From TrEMBL:
InterPro entries for this protein: 6-PGluconate_DH-like_C_sf, 6PGD_dom2, ApbA, KPA_reductase, KPR-Related, KPR_N, NAD(P)-bd_dom_sf
Species of the source: Polynucleobacter campilacus
Keywords for this protein: NADP, Oxidoreductase, Pantothenate biosynthesis
Enzyme class, UniProt record, top EC level: oxidoreductase
EC nos: 1.1.1.169
Family: Belongs to the ketopantoate reductase family.
Role summary: Catalyzes the NADPH-dependent reduction of ketopantoate into pantoic acid.
Ketopantoate reductase N-terminal domain boundaries: 6-173
Name of the molecule in the record: 2-dehydropantoate 2-reductase
Reactions it catalyzes: (R)-pantoate + NADP(+) = 2-dehydropantoate + NADPH + H(+)
Length: 339
């Protein structure tokens, strides 16, 4: 399969690109800066605990999306706030059959597309101001995905896998199409688990439960997943935030297949892992606050659901982000442990 991974030098994109290339797919990554230079020179390397040596893939790497030949599948593996500047370039390389798989955590811009009911075609302003992505991309070309693995960038072009290999997939209307079946098989052949879900939106909320709580709490406290789940006060805060999000999601027809306690226990099991938001903070990069927390608050507003805990954590993390950006990263605290 001809696959383009946009952000293919990043933590999730790099993991996908190496595994898919080694399984025989024709992979092109779009990367930039020192990452692009490293991938061109040495290939992409993936370090996994169960492998004695890093897995290396010499994939084609380009800087401009326009230089990518129309692929069968585009995996969009940039951060949520990095989507808007590239959405038109991305639309331009898509053919009528190209499938776009957005990989971002959080509520995706396409959430209300092809969703029957009261909110059909509503735009999610916090992730897609003015509905730009919604207008640029035909929803028929999109397949939804939830990214469960944890990975991080150890050095330009070098990705470290921490845990997990699940990327559940779902058509926006839940239908079991041939194309989703084929992509799921390609993912499985590359070593991933990509079950096909009828209700991808419920899975998005299940993942988001963790990201909307642990990611900002970790940025505010520098705690790891295990630390936040074991400290009674932050565990209680996460629990309250999840309960608010559950009320919002249930008004939108979402069902949670596990309860809050099990979701927290699952995050605790990941261990002393720093969330991607804490990694971003320590590196002085912008935080994915709008997609992870702002979007849930926005959906709370449209469904008239109070979200006081979400609002409070959102305010603190937004202010933290603005301060870090204003000081060009000098407020970012040094890494507390490990990576
Ligand atoms: N890392 C993780 O464990 C997990 C991440 N996720 C989600 O996956 C998504 C991706 O996260 P992650 O992989 O961690 O992010 P990274 O920052 O590691 O990767 C994104 C990559 O995209 C690159 N990029 C962004 N814009 C462009 C552009 N215009 N042209 C070329 N390259 C570009 C970035 O380059 P640059 O560095 O120069 O900006 C970076 O290399 C996020 O939504 C995140 O929440 C989900 C589950 C787990
Ligand atoms: C840590 C993990 C894997 C789950 O919360 C994640 O999604 C993130 O870091 O953004």
């Amino acid at each position: 399969m001809k696959i383009c991974v946009i952000g293919g030098g990043g933590a999730i994109g790099g993991y996908l690109a190496v595994m898919l290339a080694r399984a025989g797919n024709e992979v092109t990554v779009v990367a930039r800066g020192t990452t692009l230079a490293a991938v061109k020179e040495r290939g992409l390397a993936l370090i996994m605990d169960d492998q004695p040596e890093p897995l290396v893939a010499h994939v084609k790497a380009v800087e401009k999306i326009a230089d990518v030949e129309t692929p069968d599948v585009i995996m969009l593996a940039v951060k949520a706030h990095q989507v808007d500047p590239i959405i038109h370039d991305l639309a331009a390389i898509m053919g009528p059959e190209t499938v776009l798989i957005p990989m971002q955590n959080g509520i995706p811009w396409w959430y209300f597309q092809k969703l029957a009911g009261e909110y059909q075609d509503h735009s999610v302003e916090t992730v897609d101001a003015g509905g730009v992505a919604k207008k640029a991309i035909n929803p028929n070309n999109i397949i939804g995905c939830v990214v469960y693995p944890a990975t991080f960038t150890q050095a330009p072009g070098v990705i470290r896998h921490v845990e997990g290999n699940r990327f559940p997939l779902g058509e926006l209307d839940g239908k079991p199409t041939e194309r989703i079946q084929k992509i799921s098989e390609v993912m499985a052949a590359a070593g991933f688990k990509s079950p096909i879900l009828e209700d991808i939106r419920s899975e998005i909320w299940l993942k988001l439960w963790g990201n909307m709580t642990f990611n900002p709490i970790s940025a505010l406290t520098h705690g790891t997943l295990e630390g936040i789940c074991q400290y009674p006060l932050t565990k209680e805060l996460a629990r309250n935030m999840m309960a608010e999000a559950q009320s919002v999601a249930e008004k939108l027809g979402v069902t949670f297949r596990v309860d809050i306690e099990r979701r927290i226990a699952g995050a605790e099991k990941v261990g002393k892992h720093k969330t991607s938001m804490l990694q971003d903070l320590e590196a002085g990069r912008s935080l994915e606050i709008d997609a992870l927390l702002g979007s849930a608050i926005e959906l709370g507003q449209i469904t008239q659901t109070p979200t006081p805990c979400l609002n409070a954590v959102f305010a603190l993390t937004k202010y933290l982000d603005e301060n870090v950006q204003a000081s060009k990263g000098s407020l970012a605290l040094p890494s507390v442990s490990g990576y």
